[in-house]
Amino acid sequence: MSKVRIKQVSTELLDIPIKRPHQFSTVKVFLKSFVLIKIELSNGLIGIGEGTTPGIWWNGESVETMKLVIDQYIAPLLIDKELTYLEQLLQTMNRQIRANPFAKATVEMALFDALGKMYQVPVHQLLGSLNQDKIAVRWALASGAEDVDIQEAKDYIEANKFANFKTKSGKEIPEEDAKRNLRIAEEVKSVSSIGIDPNGSWDRITTMKWMPRFFEAGIDFLEQPLAPYDIEGAAMLVEMKQVPVMADESLATVQDAFLLAKEQAANIFSLKIHKSGGMRNTLKIAGIAEAAGISCFGGTSLESSIGTAACLHAFASIPNLDYGSELFGPSWLADDPVKNPLHIEDGYIHVPREPGLGVVLDDEKVAKYRRKEKGEVIA
Ligand SMILES: [Mg+2]
Questions:
Q1: How far is the CA of 379 from the centre of ligand 1 (A)?
Q2: What is the pTM of this model?
Q3: Is 18 a residue whose pLDDT tops 90?
Q4: Residue 5 C-alpha to ligand 1 middle, in angstroms?
Q5: Catalytic residue ranges
Q6: Residue 246 maps to which CATH number?
């Protein structure tokens, strides 16, 4: 095989509507923005990837910063380089550009899609093969209204779509949040269970005070209850040996994973390919978790089928993915920029088996959702 080089890197922004508004601890979102990247090779193959974030409040990156970083700084490092030196390309990117893990993960995704298409294998075969071919999905109850959340959970259980849930919390004062979660847990008890994600909004005392009640109510996990920097507080919660404590915002880099394991400040790691700068880093973090006896959960940045496929390829090889995933992005969006969207059935999402990421870009949808310039009429 002659040397295949990277010929061109291009990006564009997409704004895709969501089915219902989503309440995070700080903001309510009504549509989801993405940066779509295409990497064209000298043999004509094109690798695709996407970058997205819950919002700039999450780690400081946005789709606009990702686009700028990729266009201005990463693309010139890739042009004319050999694709088979993928790891070396990632190392160069890390040496030349500090931080910006979401932008780097977007690029890595397209590089792996291109490599998989070149060798005609799905990305999971490049990352460590399959340990499982489908992964359980937990739905996030995030309407912002308790009654709506309870009804939504019951409807999904009835329809056999999702069996378990997590609630987005942190918008209300911690005491009210705790009570609301206990009411939801009570309503779905015996048929389902919930995890709670306050996105780092709670304080140590409130969390410790309510911990025994959460334990009694059968709450599955507390995801990042405390501020991301409060590693000592998280270790105190773990020490209580009641509801398992999950690290999300406090865990991004491989070094974060090592520190959390060393300080015994998490029972579960929420893995996310974007926050960790890609699939390769995510698997290294899962390895640290495995060595430390920590479980893993397949987290999401609410990707479309493109990014969700990348998450699946990475998570599918992980042996300690004990808590399943929250890869519900494709079900949450009102539309998907691919011709073969991923589906969730009976609470599971299946790993694509086609070469590369295994999803095919739909050019008409891309044109439809391409960000409109100011003054341009939205069709
Ligand atoms: Mg979270």
A1: 34
A2: 0.95
A3: yes
A4: 38
A5: 168, 326
A6: 3.20.20.120
